[in-house]
Structure formats: C-alpha cells, structure tokens
Amino acid sequence: MKLQKFFAWIAVVIGAIYFIVPLIGTLEFSLRMRRDAYSFDAYASVFSDAHFLYAFGYSMLMALLTIIFGMLIVVPTAYWVRLRLPQIRPIVEFITLMPLVIPAIVIVFGYLRLYNSSSILPLTGFEQSTNFLLVCSYIVLSLPYMYRSVDTAMRTIDVGTLTEAAESLGAKWTTIMFRCIFPNVMSGVLSGAFITLAIVMGEFTMASLLNRPAFGPYMQLVGANQAYQSSALAIIALAVTWLSMGLLQLVSRFSKLAPVKA
User: Fold this and answer.
1) In 3D, which of 212, 235, 230 has the Cα closest to residue 138?
2) Tens digit of each residue's pLDDT (9 = 90 or more) over 26-39
3) Can you say whether the dihedral through the CA atoms of 2, 8, 11, 13 is positive or negative?
4) Among 71, 80, 177, 240, fewest CB within 10 Å belongs to which?
5) Rounded Cα gap, residues 181 and 80, in angstroms
6) DSSP string for 71-97
7) Tens digit of pLDDT for each residue in 189-199?
8) ABC transmembrane type-1 domain: which residues (predicted)?
9) Which domains does the chain have, with CATH numbers?
C-alpha cells in the first residue's frame, strides 16, 4: 500500500513538473524584454496595444454569445431527450460527438462554400452575419462538452417528478424550463461555459479563415513577430483560464450547498 502511494506521488510530481516548468520558463522569458533586468515591459506593450484590447473584447463577446445560445439549445434538448425521447439518446450523443471527429478546418471550409457572398444565403458578405456564423461555429465546437456537462447534471435530478409537480401547479413549458430545470442543472451549464470560454479564447482556425479579429489570430500574429509579447500573451491567456476555473469552482460549491428547487 505504501509503495502504491509512493508511485502515485511520483506520478503527481512528474506531472506537475511537466506542466509547471514550461510555464515558469514562459513567465521568466516574458519578463526579459529589458536587457539584463526583469521588467513588465512586454505586458505594458501588450496592454497598450489597441489591437489587443479589441481582439480580447471581441473574443469575450463571442464567448458570451456562444454560451448563451449554446445553453438555450442544449438544455432544452437534453431535457426533452431525457423526459420524452430516451430512445433517440444514442443518436443525439452521436451527433454531439461529431465535432470531435470532423476537423475544424473542414467545418469552416463547408461554411465558406455554403455561405459565401455568391450563394443564396451570403452570410460571409456582411460583418454582422459573419459574426453570427462564427458564433454558430463556436457552438458546434463546444457542443460535445456543453451537452455532456448538462446531461450529467440532469442525471442528478428527477426530471419527471419536477415536471409533473410543476404541471400540477399549472406551470407552462417556459416556466418549467427556466424556473425548475435551469436552476438545477446550473453546475453543468457552468462547467460547459468554462470549457466553451477556453475553446473560444484559444480558437484560431475558424476565426482566421472567416477573417474575424479574434484573440486566437491576434496571438498568432504577435507570436510571429514579437517574441516577448507573445510570451506575455500566453501568460495572460493562462491567467484568464485559471480565473475562470476558480470562479467555476466557487459557483459550483455554492450550487452544491443550495437546496434542490421544485
């Protein structure tokens, strides 16, 4: 037993070294923009760049829209499949897994072929419609993670009993969905939202080919021309991810303490 614990700790230490050492190296390199001294010049250069603020804000907006619309699609679908159509659950799970099998570049080339400026539905011909197409692309990419997070959270509640109780009190479908189901699967929604945020902030292929000013293409552009600033951007992106993870854990802890709503 002690030998197993010893090897378990060895594995943990090796894993920690594997992840932490490159991060320390990246952080140390980002502080060496000034010769023979550590400084935050690279970070000051990044934050003073108007393109950084625009790209970061744009990706955060796209992430917010992706989370909202993805939630409005996934939660009712998972609820209806679990309550009324359990026989098609394997089909729905297969469909939600397709984005893991089909590369993002194949999906975006399909969008460009279907929705180019000379097609019947020229979404890529206008800025706002291209933004809408990008949000749809992000929803597709996040679908496997959002659906499974919500479906796992829905397994922990008695969907049938909640629905019957709400219907016996005269609740409509919208009331059941937004006042009974959503509050009880919020931990799954938040888990999917965190993964969606990470996907959107780091995604490059779709934003680049759709010619959108997102954070991923901006990081690639800076990395190709400015070494210290690209390292600073990597640390900033990691800090945003860790902050999101901390907020997720905090909200999940409060949701576990909250009573189940009927």
Assistant:
1) 212
2) 888 888 888 878 88
3) negative
4) 80
5) 11
6) HHHHHHHHHHHHHT-GGGHHHHHHHHH
7) 888 888 888 88
8) 56-249
9) 53-254 (1.10.3720.10)
